[in-house]
Automatic annotation (TrEMBL):
This is NAD(P)/FAD-dependent oxidoreductase. Residues 2-292 form the FAD/NAD(P)-binding domain. Gene3D superfamilies: FAD/NAD(P)-binding domain (3.50.50.60). SUPFAM superfamilies: FAD/NAD(P)-binding domain (SSF51905). InterPro entries: FAD/NAD-bd_sf, FAD/NAD-binding_dom, SQRD. It comes from the Bacteria.
Length: 380
């Protein structure tokens, strides 16, 4: 029997499990192949939905479902936390003390906002990249009646366009609430422009200028001064706030940060950009946010990676070759307010080119959000 072990029950891990179940159904039923997915959570959270929670546009119930409901019954699901990889023995050890052997290992452990990396943030600021954070921010916004609002961004982070989306959505929200005239919005970004890619930076600059949103560039976050209510950069630039929303730098999961498979302090795993295997191991693959690939850490990235890897892995299990190559394809919707959106599509070679924002694209994004659960199962 060939054994496949998937670490992670988020979007990447779940899509991969379902793709293998779809492509190897008979082999799984006959016991020729087994696929085990180890997830440290029993509920699947649709992370892009967190953007809408602070604005009251989505509820907790709409973006969460039990993992068992979204994973094929042909997959063995283990609710535990992977704590160690033993590549020589081809084993994964878990927090409960169990050991799982594999012929092929797929690491889809995602990323997390490293709030602890920014002193003062937890005390005086807000994030919306976790469910608890998004709900707390929603409450703070309900009580907000005007003042200095700061969106401060650290790098790297998943869903790179989300800070842009939140800022423009907040602008619309403040206008509809009737408090925009007494609200000052500042966007702080660590690079020369408000986004790392020229075309998206140009879009953001245009939108922010029209909306009277301040842009503070080369702003590399150091800490939050909770007493003075200021966010402070490494060069001691200080921006005052009454409401601080921050995207702290992200890190990989603890198991990858501590693993010998990584070559950096953040826990990103060195991954072949075409075949998605770990650069030092032909039987270990990395998908989703856990890779060190020079592309966005986003759900669509995982989707396109899974399409390639699932077909290659099935071929390898059958004794064939991995012939499909991932070209870095990514597709991202970008909300440009509460009622309009644009999108970008790009890959390793072709940079993104945002289309003109429109209501039609906004509704397309909302439809895509609602279709996540179908997409997760590999039906779309």
């Amino acid at each position: 029997m060939k054994k496949v072990v998937i670490i992670g029950g988020g979007t990447a891990g779940t899509m991969m499990a379902n793709a293998l179940a779809k492509g190897m159904g008979e082999k799984l039923k006959n016991g020729d192949v087994s696929v085990t997915m180890i997830s440290d959570k029993k509920e699947h959270l649709y992370q892009p939905g967190l953007l809408y929670i602070p604005f009251g546009l989505k509820t907790e119930e709409e973006i969460i479902r039990p993992v068992k409901e979204v994973v094929s019954p042909l997959i063995d699901i283990v609710f535990d936390e992977a704590t160690q990889f033993s590549t020589e023995q081809k084993q994964v050890k878990t927090k409960s003390g169990k050991t799982f052997s594999y012929d092929y290992l797929i690491i889809a452990t995602g990323s997390r906002p490293a709030v602890e990396e920014v002193p003062g943030l937890e005390e005086a600021g807000h994030i919306f990249y976790t469910l608890d954070g998004a709900k707390k921010l929603q409450k703070a916004m309900e009580e907000f009646e005007g003042g200095n609002v700061v969106m401060a961004v650290g790098l790297p982070h998943k869903c790179p366009v989300a800070p842009l989306e939140f800022t423009m959505m907040f602008d619309d929200w403040a206008r509809e609430k009737g408090i925009r005239e007494k609200t000052n919005i500042t966007y702080c970004y660590p690079l020369q422009k408000p986004y790392g890619t020229e075309s998206v930076a140009k879009l953001a600059t245009k939108e922010y200028t029209e909306r009277n949103i301040n842009i503070e560039t080369f702003f590399m976050i150091d800490h939050v001064d909770a007493e003075k209510k200021e966010v402070v950069a490494l060069d001691d630039t200080r921006v005052p706030f009454d409401l601080l929303v921050m995207i702290p730098p992200h890190k990989g999961a603890d198991v990858t940060v501590k693993s010998s498979l990584t070559d950096n302090d953040e826990g990103w795993l060195p991954t072949d950009r075409q075949y998605l295997n770990h650069v030092d191991h032909d039987n270990i693959f990395v998908i989703g946010d856990a890779t060190n690939l020079p592309i966005s850490k986003a759900g669509s990235t995982a989707h396109f990676e899974v399409e390639i890897l699932a077909e290659n892995l099935i071929s390898m299990i059958d004794g064939g070759q991995a012939n499909k190559r991932y070209n870095g394809k990514v597709f991202c919707f970008i909300e440009t307010g509460l009622h309009k959106a644009t999108y970008i599509a790009f890959n390793y070679e072709q940079p993104p080119k945002p289309v003109t924002p429109s209501k039609a694209v906004h509704w397309a994004k909302l439809s895509y959000n609602n279709a996540h659960w179908i997409n997760l199962k590999g039906i779309l």
